[in-house]
Amino acid sequence: MAFRDVLNIEVAAGNGGDGSMSFHRAKYMEKGGPDGGHGGRGGSIILRAIEGVESLERLVGRRKFKAPNGAYGEGRLRQGGDGEDVFIDVPVGTTAFDETTGKVIADLVRVGQEKVIARGGFGGRGNSTFVSSTRQAPRFAELGTPGQKRRVRLELRLIADVGLVGYPNAGKSSLLAALSRANPAIADYPFTTLSPILGVVDRVDANGTPVDERFTLADIPGIIEGASEGKGLGLEFLRHISRTRLLVYVLDVTRNPVEELRQLQGELRAYDPTLLDQVSLIALNKVELTDEDLAAMVVDELAEFGLPVVQVSAKGGEGLPELREAIFQMLPDRELWAQNNALEIESDTVREEPLRIEFRIDPAARGVGIINDGQPERVWAVHGGGFEERIVRFSRFMDEAAEYLGNVFKRQGLYNALKRAGAREGDTVEIGTFRFEYFDDEQQR
Fold first, then answer.
1. Is 134 annotated as a binding residue?
2. Which of 170, 207, 224, 355 is placed for a possible disulfide with 232 were both Cys, Cβ 3.0 to 4.6 Å?
3. Is 95 annotated as a binding residue?
4. Is residue 197 marked as binding?
5. Of 102, 129, 156, which one is at a domain's C-terminal end?
6. Binding site annotation covers 168?
7. 195 is an annotated ligand-binding site residue
8. Mind listing the pLDDT tens digit for each residue in 238-281?
9. CATH number of the domain that 70 lies in?
10. Where a domain ends, among 310, 340, 370?
C-alpha cells in the first residue's frame, strides 16, 4: 500500500430534527392539549485514532463523509431519534486542520483518542415546550439547527521518540536496522527509503539483557537541499520530525559532514525554526571507512554546533551501544515533552457574535406587520447576540411565534438595547428577514 500522509476531505454532520407541532387527539376529547415531541440530534463526524494503520491511504477513494440527520419529533410527546455518529479511523499521529481558517481542530496522539470535527445540529423543541399560563395552545414548534460542514486537511505526523535525520545514503536505514528490530530496505543508492520506517530499541544492562525501557526510532526519508521549498521527498516528510522528542543527525564521515549538518539545519530552520530547539545529537557514521585521526579531526570540527557526537559504524557495530545509551540518557520525559509541545486546538465552544444595532432610513415599508404612514421608515437592523439564529429556528411558524419571540427578546435585553441606541415608538426592527414594530414598554404602562 502506498504511503500517504496528507489527505483533504469534506465532512457534513447531520441536521437536527424539527420539533413537532401536534395536539392530542382522542375519541372523547375534542380539543386535546399540545403534545409535540422534540426532534433528534444530528449525527456528528468523529476522528478516531487506531493502531495498525500506517498511512492515510485506506481513506483514498472516499473524500466525503455525511452523518445522518436527526428524526423529526412526533405527537404524543415522542422524541425523534438521534442521527448516528460517523467515525473516521485514522492513524495515531493524525492532525486535522480546518481548510478555511487554517486552525487545528484535532490532534490525535493516543490510540483510542477521539475528536468531533463536525458537530451535529440540535433538535428542535416540540410545541408542548411552549405552553404557558397565557399560551395554552401554541401553534408553533422549533426547527432543528443545521449540522456543521467543513473542508478538512488531514496530516499524518509520525509518532516516534527519536528521528534519524540525514541526507540520502548517509546510512540511516542501516543504523535503524542495527539498533532495532526493524528490517528496512537497504541498498547503496539514494532514496532507498520512500516511507518513514519505525523500529523499537530496547535498553540493555551490562550483560546485554534487555531491561524494561525502550524507545521508538524513525528513519525519516532522506532530505535534499531545497526540501523545505518542496524539492524531492523532503517536504513530504519533514512534518514527521516535529513529533520526535530527540533528533539524531546521521552524517557520513567520508563526505563533508560539517557542511552537510549546516545544510540539514538550514532546511529544518526554513521549514520550522522550532525544530532546532529539539534535543539532538550527532551519529558520525561509516567510521570503518576512515582512520581514527581523520575521524577525530571531524569530531573537533563538529564542536561548533554544540551537540554531542558519537562515532558509529552501522555496518560493523562499532559505537552502537554508546549511541543507544546516549539516546536513553538524553531523551526528554515523555509527559513533560507532550505538555510543552501540545498543539493549540480550536475550541468547541460556539462564540456568540457581539450584539450590533445599525440605524438606516428606508424609502418605503416592507415586511409583515409594519404600518407606513407615507413617511420614510426608521429601521434598526439587529446583528449578533444570537437573535438571528433564534429567528431562523421559528421561520416556518413566524406569525404564530411572534409573541413568544417578542417576550424572549425583551427578557434578553434587546428592547433596552434598542432604546439606548435611540429607537422610538413605531420604528421598525429588522432581524434577518423578520421585521416588527418597536414599542417602548415603559410608555405602555
1. no
2. 224
3. no
4. no
5. 156
6. yes
7. yes
8. 777 888 899 999 999 999 999 999 999 988 888 888 889 999 99
9. 2.70.210.12
10. 340
